[in-house]
Specification:
GO cellular component, one term (chains A, B): plasma membrane
Radius of gyration of chain A: 28 Å
Number of domains of chain A: 2
Distance between the termini of chain A: 65 Å
GO molecular function (chains A, B): calcium-activated cation channel activity
Oligomer: homodimer
Keywords (chains A, B): Ion channel, Ion transport, Membrane, Transmembrane, Transmembrane helix, Transport
Number of helices of chain A: 27
Membrane topology (chains A, B): Multi-pass membrane protein
Protein name (chains A, B): CSC1-like protein RXW8
């Protein structure tokens, strides 16, 4: 691949980005799309924009970028929660470390690469890309110390920055937990695996148990029954109730005689909106024979609830299982009644499912990888031969088409993974999303990084025409293609736009104002982390990738802040639990980088340089161990507020 | 290797075993060695044997075997604790599963192997050993379904038996925790990482903290000071005090003016012998400027101590770290004062150290592996040529010498691993031993199993004379050699015997009656588990190994029970925590067996049989997940006794 081909690809992407961003800046001012682009604000602040016709509406503008940049951390925390802050800090960390890496690599390493061999240099645009990678350094070169030095600096600074961020987020998490006074979840324990007894009702069992063993702080409880039909009616009632709140609904399936009842949380005085349960006596009448599934137990103090949630209750760890209850809005009701004994089977089954899915996904990835090599396209799709002879078309196909197809395939990953996570049986929305986030991350690292590289190497070997030197270059093409395109698509909210259009103009239905999506952390966190991994592992080997990556992170910073502030609603919050995932991924990326460099320096027959890649691995692992001791416990539990 | 060579090796071992066991049955009746063979009884029950000369003393007898077999589980629990029971159950499980495996494999699989190829059969003693292994089955044989079936039965029954044992030990653990009423450890919390304050003394800091946050159940506390010299004096005093108790010592280093003081545990009324601390005021006088390292905090109720130990105390997880205190006799005093913040470095460093040690150990193992192949010995040690020409000598060398040398090398492993475990900074003896046990186990599995196999394969390839078919056969030779020999040496207590002899007859010192060793779980558990792994992985491939293994486990059952009852003292007890280690190892062994069989059946070009090895893997992993949910939490913490 030549520099010019890369530039063409980048140019197309920049063009599309500018176009889409301008389009966005216009569309966001149209009243018709206000629900798509300002969902959060609408839901919180009622209508702001009136449907007046002003010419200004149709002029692209940049004000939204300024707004997104100006917003402070407090605003973001208030608007989108601690998870948003954690996500934002991931981007800030990436921008910082890759700015440094870009400066060091472009000015330090790129010249070493370019002048690494005494050859005749062409003009830069028609130079082959591998002239700028480590491929161009001579075997047994004495200049590899530059690479080692840069690696040391990057690893050291990355650890330093990670420490700052971890500390910052841990502090915010503690503040966040202290600040939320109206937080019924902290007073409540979710009890599962309540054993059947000869006693007449499950409710009295729960009462007996907690009065006996937690007498000092036990307040009262609410049993959740596993009731097929009643469950469905409850779910229906809950939905309907949500609609009634906005008093716009007429066509509900609500059985009007059975209303959902809202228990005011007597501890904090707040009315917890989601603890909508049928009154116990009414349920008991209907479902005497139904199994008691779980119970929410309320305590007088936060400390009491915390202690009760941490202790093992009986000698059988699958009975009377206590956990801190999720926040009312966070409860994933359809999983609450799952028998606790079943969960281990579900966990194994979903693990298996994810593995099989990851393996089956190899097929499209391998095919697409083939597309980016032009002679493969000639062979596999011979009818395109005429078209491919034209230089620009061929550059588009090699630089752009594979990314688009791969992107479309990757869109199927997160729905499938979140389905797996749902089947796993988490009791809260945030846990479900976080588990999906980990799954998608493993999937990305495995499939996009390892397999992409491996299949590329295999194809190259089959061809015998090109060597593995193109791998880093191919990755460089991924970033403008997939990265920038996906950001633009996120900004444009293509799905939301089309959905809105169909609802409004095709089906002519009234808009559903209650539905505002939550931020898809399970797709966006892995995406950002994957590009980070790509950046670290290519930094010293193919530094040309870094400017593209830096542009991606800058754009991402603007876009995601804007989306968090305007589009998505914070219904639930895991309290910054995405940060440990990000931290571990960066640690993994840094270690992998060292291992890759060890291999590359070994191939260059420079044992000294290869040897110098070993000590940082131990340094990084030690740092990780330190963080696990110092910060991680705060993300697993929290210090009690003894009130 | 021929059958006759194997039989020679086995014969020599049987001879040596019978000789040593007879010798043991004589020696144990000699009053001179009573401290070696009845250390525990002497320490507990005072002298039983008088120094009368009876002829019976010099006649070998079998009564001790009957005694060892007759003793009930209650006796063993009383004499040697729950760890001994767990170890005993490992042996019982092994005997049961390998009896079944031996029956199935010898009657089902051995004929398939022997008649697997249509060749002329020699007389059995001069038949090559590989005639009895899977090597002799034809490629694409239809008889491999027998192997699959046997594998299924073994895996299923192993899981069933493991479930019974896990349940049994969990029940015993609960009973054990309930039964021990005089157990100060359960009322005590060990606090580390106490921060420095402007406050005048550390003691008042601890008092303030626990009075403030655990007012309802806090009783009092005892600070442990980090004091260089004072620490040493205390250790000396402790030792001396132990000697004084038996009032036999005259030559102690005790500073008589400073006596160790025994605090009676005011909760249970028992005098806890090891909480021997200097009175606070005296210490404070000497070491005003010394750092406060840790504190034992005593609670009114077990439940209060348990809750305090489980909660995170402050927003910094490295300060005010609370754990349940070890039992008085279990406290590892020299690690108590280690700064908590340092522990993560120690953990990383010992991990590194163990890795390096495991890698360096490859050298002797590879050399020894070479010895078991006769032509290698010829080449490496040419001066032995004349000797090696004699058939019996060569059979001894191939069958016996390598095991002895390897055994001697392996004797260095456990002291080094326990040194690493000490450096890691555990606060109790039992934790230290358990951690060493895991390390030795990893080392054994890695070095003896994987590397032994791999180096054997490499050597075979270098020779080009023999193929990998000898590997299973070589392993078969390991069991009579290493297994039986190590059991006999354990029974004979060679080290103890020599030590005792030197002390008594060479140095003419008075015997140290206070010193009775504790059972070396960290060497014996890994040894037994390694033979289990060997048994599972060779069962269907080289069934001839099973009778030898079964003999090993039977002998082990007798020997270890005898040793636990008579020789070793139970000073501390981890409460059956060795069982989860054993369970995980068996799970690993079963999965590895399936994977090895997958490979072997694949080489035999039998895709159906290979495919049938996949489902058991998932079954085994599911079973493991079930046990982790159902039983493992009981081994990490325990349900509170609310008294």
């Amino acid at each position: 691949m030549k520099i010019s081909a890369l530039m063409t690809s980048a140019g197309i992407n920049i063009g599309i980005c500018v176009l889409l961003w301008s389009l966005y800046s216009v569309l966001r001012k149209q009243p018709a799309f206000v629900r798509v682009y300002f969902g959060r604000r609408i839901a919180e602040e009622n209508r702001l924009l009136r449907e007046a016709f002003i010419l200004e509406r149709f002029v692209p503008s940049t004000g939204w970028i300024v707004k997104a940049l100006q917003c402070t951390e407090e605003d973001l925390l208030a608007a989108a929660g601690l998870d948003a802050i954690a996500f934002n800090r991931i981007l800030v960390f990436s921008i910082r470390i890759f700015s440094l890496a870009a400066i060091l690599c472009l000015f330090g390493i790129l010249p070493v690469h370019y002048f690494g061999r005494k050859t005749h240099h062409l003009e830069i645009p028609s130079e082959q890309l591998h002239m700028f990678t480590v491929q161009n350094v001579e075997v047994q070169s004495r200049w590899l110390w530059v690479h080692s030095l840069v690696l040391y600096i990057i690893s050291g600074v990355a650890c330093f920055l990670l420490h700052i961020e971890y500390k910052h987020i841990a502090r915010l998490r503690l503040l966040h937990l202290k600040r939320t006074t109206l937080n019924p979840g902290q007073f409540t324990v979710l009890v599962r695996g309540i054993p059947k007894t000869a006693n007449e009702s499950c409710s009295s069992d729960v009462d007996d148990f907690f009065t006996k063993y937690h007498a000092s702080s036990y307040l009262f409880h609410q049993v959740v029954y596993k009731a097929g039909k009643v469950q469905k009616i409850m779910t229906g009632a809950k939905k309907a109730c949500g609609k009634l709140d906005h008093s716009t609904s007429t066509d509900t399936t609500l059985d009007q005689s059975r209303k959902a009842i809202t228990y005011p949380c007597c501890v904090c005085g707040a009315s917890s909106n989601s603890f909508q349960l049928l009154p116990t006596d009414e349920v008991a009448k209907n479902i005497d024979n139904e199994e008691c599934a779980a119970a929410f137990v309320f305590f007088k103090t936060r400390y009491g609830a915390l202690l009760a949630s941490q202790a093992l209750q009986t000698s059988n760890p699958t009975k009377w299982v206590t956990d801190l209850a999720p926040e009312p809005d966070d409860v994933y009701w359809s999983n609450i009644w799952l028998p606790y004994k079943q969960l281990w089977i579900r966990r194994i089954a979903t693990l298996l499912g994810s593995l099989v899915f990851s393996v089956l996904f190899l097929l499209p990835v391998t095919f697409i990888q083939g597309l980016s090599q032009l002679d493969q396209v000639h062979r596999k799709l011979p009818f395109l031969n005429g078209l491919l002879k034209q230089p620009y078309i061929s550059q588009i196909i090699t630089g752009y088409l594979p990314s688009v197809i791969l992107l479309l395939f990757l869109y199927t990953v997160s729905p499938i993974m979140i389905l797996f996570s749902t089947l796993e049986g988490p009791t809260s929305h945030s846990e479900r999303k976080r588990s999906a986030c980990s799954k998608v991350l493993y999937f990305f690292i495995w499939n996009v990084f390892f397999v992409n590289l491996a299949s590329g190497a295999v194809i190259s070997q089959l061809n015998s025409s090109s060597t593995t030197k193109d791998i880093a270059v191919q990755l460089a093409g991924v970033i403008p293609g997939q990265g920038w395109a996906s950001l633009s698509s996120e900004l444009m909210q293509l799905f939301g736009l089309i959905y809105n259009f169909i609802i409004k103009y095709v089906l002519r239905m009234k808009e559903d104002t209650a539905f505002v999506p939550t931020f898809p952390y399970h797709t966006e966190v892995p995406k950002v982390m994957l590009f980070g991994l790509l950046g670290f592992s290519c930094s010293v080997l193919a530094p040309l990738i870094l400017p593209f990556l830096l542009v991606y992170f800058f754009l991402g910073y603007v876009v995601y802040r804007n989306q968090l502030l305007n589009v998505y609603r914070m219904r639930y919050d895991s309290g910054g639990l995405y940060w440990p995932i990000a931290h571990n991924t960066v640690m993994f990326s840094l270690v992998l980088t060292q291992i890759i460099c060890f291999g590359v320096f070994g191939l260059k027959k420079s044992p000294v340089a290869a040897g110098f890649t070993i000590p940082p691995i131990f340094f990084i692992l030690s740092f990780n161990q330190y963080c696990r001791t110092r910060f991680l416990p705060l993300f697993k539990t929290f210090p009690p507020r003894r009130t």
